[in-house]
């Protein structure tokens, strides 16, 4: 995040950090790994009370931000959660909230998501395909009083815990989104394994699921701009979380280099290691710089938002695992043990690297933007 | 500082846009033969001519104080002007080192007379400056210079040699770091001089690099006479001036100088063409792997831009220690380095061989041969990494055999 936060943002960061430190220290994160959902619902409700679900919702709908730049405030939460490999459906719930707020309607759902009573998630990936949120093969077929949805979504975050799913589908009119309750007949969630110990994913099977006309989000066939906005928010949130994780890992690895002595001197005194720390510090600052820029661009809806988000997601996504694995190396043998916390961070960063667009996918998207802008700028 | 109100950035931008359109030549009309190393004198003359246009139009030295010929405006004004100037032929070669490094250092450390004469001279397009820092035996140990100046009545007599100065043959003045006291430890006996490049006793030899460029020079000083007012800062206080100069060099190399006009490099090259144009030239623009490389490069440049902004903001707000500018220097080298690799990967065989007379993508290969230039020029990246680890992260300093030892007792080695 930016160096300069408003006093309110600083307080918000401190409150979030204190809550996470107390409620889900890494020892708790490890315990949660054996539980059903990776987080406790009452805990999530308390996070919602701290404002984690209100930031993208306008005041007139009961939301509100700390700084009048809700997405930037939300990035503070994401970064703090990254620093502690925190559990919780921060990203999926906020993506769903942003979709509902952008589209209008669904007021009571917005309320219960904001209150932390309901958990919503974005079902956007499909088996065997990459990051193509605007090209689903799950279909919506009209019925007399609604729609029939058919197909499979995978990599659905917090799928088992979710009460409702924001599903991207192909309707006869084009790209469309529906809000589907978890108890809809024909809907089935198959849990997936996950590299992350606490963050869970699942496969969503939609076997002729009947939804009423009121399940529609926004207008029929007109979901493309909404989905674009969702993907920007998801990517930048995830990048901020990853940057937070790298921040913490480098912090304790640097401390280790000062504390750990070999041949009578601290590791931090060896030039071969100092140079690697210098690289990593530089990359970390670069991660923070691009995440802030991307966050601000998405917040302000500026024309370069897509480009900056793709730059952030590709750079942070790939650099994070480089840095954390180098930190494992610098820890030596202890770094590759289950007991050490490093792998919790490496797991989170590796999962983040592969979701909501891989670095490679974001790079190709950037190239498309570069090539598309050629005629304009020349 | 003047108390008159500063023109709002957007007003300034619009005024600049209008002025540029009426006065500056369009980039597409630029004489490409100016990029030919054989035509270098003409290229420098053109640089001075364009700088003079900026001066006459009232757009020279946006960030420099008014009393020394500048406009006394903010970094935002500077950025706005640079962005607006992108479609025009600009005097980019005067940016580094003349304005961004030398004039910036004189502004911080020079006498009133030096500031008026040298900054004014540069902004008017009359003069170019060069850095005389590195020495043939020096490597990264800048404070170990052995070029010397000895006092002789009212004047100083300069003897020794400097190297790796960029564009010295075209310059008028050089900021030259020399030893003036050998009986004290190395940092304490240095003085910075402003040396007229065309003074009697100065010999310049151009160095041919692996890519054919002859931009770098070597200088020999044989009993060059300098007046007392050629000293920049204090006698034996040269390290403070050099440190400031290095700060501005890092800032310029990292892309964060507030004292430049225009964007881009001073010399165009086929190796500088957009990656997508290169990809198209070799028929690979639709290859997904090539697209990844194009996107990666674009990401690196965007990240670099925002790292620079972050570091500048961190320095201004006191959130990062001063030496943090080395991070931008290091990142810039990495971005350049990776671009060089990416160009080679995209060009494939066309980078290394092709029809006689059609060198096209072959310049990518030559650029690759010179890949390390960005990691060496302006201090090696190894030194940048030392600075970051020691002065940003606070890690222990490297052992130095010459620390606190009078320089005349320091072992000098054979090569």
Short description:
The complex is a heterodimer of chains A (378) and B (415). Chain A is an alpha+beta fold and 378 residues long. Chain A is built from 12 helices and 10 strands.
Percent of residues in helices of chain A:
40-55%
**Structural class by SSE content of chain A:** alpha+beta
Overall spatial form of chain B:
globular
Counted by DSSP, the helix tally of chain B is: 12
Cofactor (chain A): FAD
Family (chain A): Belongs to the acyl-CoA dehydrogenase family.
Keywords (chain A): FAD, Flavoprotein, Oxidoreductase
Pfam families (chain A): Acyl-CoA_dh_1, Acyl-CoA_dh_M, Acyl-CoA_dh_N
Description:
Chain A: This is Acyl-CoA dehydrogenase family protein. The complex is a heterodimer of chains A (378) and B (415). In chain A, the strands form three sheets. A four-stranded mixed β-sheet of chain A has the order 1-4-5-8, with helices on one face. A four-stranded antiparallel β-sheet of chain A has the order 2-3-7-6, with no helix packed on it. In chain A, strands 9-10 form a two-stranded antiparallel ribbon. In chain A, helix 1 packs parallel to helix 4 and helix 8 runs antiparallel to helix 9 (305-331). The radius of gyration of chain A is 21 Å and the shape is globular. Chain A is an alpha+beta fold and 378 residues long. Chain A starts with 6 loop residues before the first helix and ends with a helix. Helix content of chain A is 51%, strand content 16%. In chain B, strand 2 (148-152) and strand 3 (155-166) form a beta hairpin. In chain B, helix 4 packs antiparallel against helix 5. Chain B is of the alpha+beta class and 415 residues long. In chain B, 41% of the residues lie in helices and 13% in strands. The relative contact order of chain B is 0.11. In chain B, the strands form two sheets. A four-stranded mixed β-sheet of chain B has the order 1-4-5-8. A four-stranded antiparallel β-sheet of chain B has the order 2-3-7-6, with no helix packed on it.
């Amino acid at each position: 995040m930016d160096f300069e936060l408003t006093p309110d943002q600083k307080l918000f960061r401190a409150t979030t950090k204190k809550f996470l430190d107390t409620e889900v220290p890494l020892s708790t994160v490890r315990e949660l790994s054996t539980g059903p959902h990776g987080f406790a619902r009452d805990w999530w409700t308390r996070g919602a009370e701290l404002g984690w679900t209100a930031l993208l919702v306008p005041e007139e709908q009961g939301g509100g931000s700390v700084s009048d730049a809700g997405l930037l405030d939300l990035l503070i939460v994401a970064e703090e959660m990254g620093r502690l490999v925190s559990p919780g459906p921060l990203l999926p719930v906020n993506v769903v909230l942003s979709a509902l707020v952008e589209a209008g309607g669904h007021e009571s759902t917005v309320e219960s998501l904001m209150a932390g009573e309901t958990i919503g998630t974005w079902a956007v990936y499909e088996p065997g395909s990459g990051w193509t949120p605007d090209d689903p093969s799950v279909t919506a077929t009209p019925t007399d009083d609604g729609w029939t949805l058919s197909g499979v979504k995978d990599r659905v975050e917090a799928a088992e815990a979710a009460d409702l799913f924001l599903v991207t589908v192909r309707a006869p009119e084009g790209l469309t989104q529906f809000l589907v309750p978890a108890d809809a007949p024909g809907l089935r969630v198959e849990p997936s394994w996950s590299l992350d110990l606490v963050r869970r994913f699942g496969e969503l099977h939609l076997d002729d699921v009947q939804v009423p006309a009121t399940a529609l989000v926004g207008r029929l066939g007109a979901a493309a701009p909404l989905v674009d906005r969702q993907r920007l928010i998801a990517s930048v949130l995830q990048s901020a979380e990853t940057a937070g994780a790298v921040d913490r890992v480098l912090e304790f690895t640097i401390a280790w280099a000062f504390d750990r002595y070999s041949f009578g001197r601290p590791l931090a005194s060896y030039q071969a290691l100092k140079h690697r720390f210098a690289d990593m510090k530089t990359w970390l600052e670069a991660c923070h710089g691009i995440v802030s820029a991307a966050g601000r661009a998405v917040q302000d809806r500026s024309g370069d938002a897509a480009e900056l988000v793709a730059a952030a997601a590709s750079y942070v996504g790939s650099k994070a695992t480089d840095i954390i694995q180098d930190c494992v190396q610098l820890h030596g043998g202890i770094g590759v043990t289950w007991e050490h916390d490093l792998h919790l961070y490496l797991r989170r960063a590796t999962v983040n690297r592969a979701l909501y667009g891989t670095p490679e996918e974001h790079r190709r998207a950037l190239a498309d933007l570069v090539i598309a802008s050629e005629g304009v700028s020349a | 500082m003047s108390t008159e109100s500063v023109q709002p950035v957007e007003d300034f931008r619009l005024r600049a846009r209008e002025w540029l359109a009426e006065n500056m030549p369009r980039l597409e009309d630029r004489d490409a033969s100016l990029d030919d190393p054989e035509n270098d004198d003409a290229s420098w003359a053109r640089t001075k001519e364009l700088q003079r246009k900026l001066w006459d139009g009232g757009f020279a030295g946006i960030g420099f104080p008014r009393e020394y010929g500048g406009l006394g405006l903010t970094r935002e004004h500077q950025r706005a002007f640079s962005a607006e100037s992108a479609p025009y032929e600009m005097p980019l070669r005067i940016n580094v080192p003349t304005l961004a490094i030398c004039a910036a250092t004189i502004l911080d450390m020079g006498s009133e007379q030096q500031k008026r004469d040298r900054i004014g001279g540069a902004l008017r397009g009359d003069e170019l400056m060069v850095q005389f820092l590195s020495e043939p035996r020096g490597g990264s140990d800048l404070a170990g210079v052995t070029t010397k100046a000895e006092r002789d009545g009212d004047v100083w007599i300069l003897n020794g040699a400097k190297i790796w100065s960029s564009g010295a043959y075209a310059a008028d003045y050089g900021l030259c770091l020399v030893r003036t006291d050998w009986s004290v430890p190395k940092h304490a006996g240095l003085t910075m001089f402003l040396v007229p490049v065309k003074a009697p006793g100065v010999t310049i030899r151009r160095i041919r690099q692996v890519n054919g460029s002859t931009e770098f020079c070597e200088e020999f000083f044989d009993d060059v006479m300098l007046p007392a007012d050629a000293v920049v800062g204090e006698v034996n206080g040269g390290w403070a001036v050099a440190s400031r100069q290095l700060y501005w060099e890092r800032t310029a190399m990292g892309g964060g100088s507030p004292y430049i006009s225009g964007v881009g490099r001073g010399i165009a090259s086929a190796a500088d063409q957009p990656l997508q144009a290169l990809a198209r030239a070799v028929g690979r623009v639709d290859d997904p792997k090539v697209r990844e490389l194009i996107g990666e490069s674009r990401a690196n440049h965007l990240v670099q831009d925002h790292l620079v902004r972050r570091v500048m903001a961190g320095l201004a707000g006191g959130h990062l220690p001063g030496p943090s500018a080395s991070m931008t220097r290091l990142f810039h080298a990495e971005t350049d380095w990776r671009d060089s690799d990416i160009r080679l990967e995209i060009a494939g065989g066309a980078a290394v061989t092709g029809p006689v007379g059609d060198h096209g993508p072959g310049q990518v290969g030559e650029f690759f041969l010179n890949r390390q230039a960005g990691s060496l020029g302006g201090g090696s990246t190894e030194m940048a990494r030392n600075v970051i680890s020691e002065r940003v992260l606070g890690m222990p300093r490297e052992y130095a055999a010459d620390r606190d030892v009078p320089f005349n007792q320091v072992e000098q080695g054979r090569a």
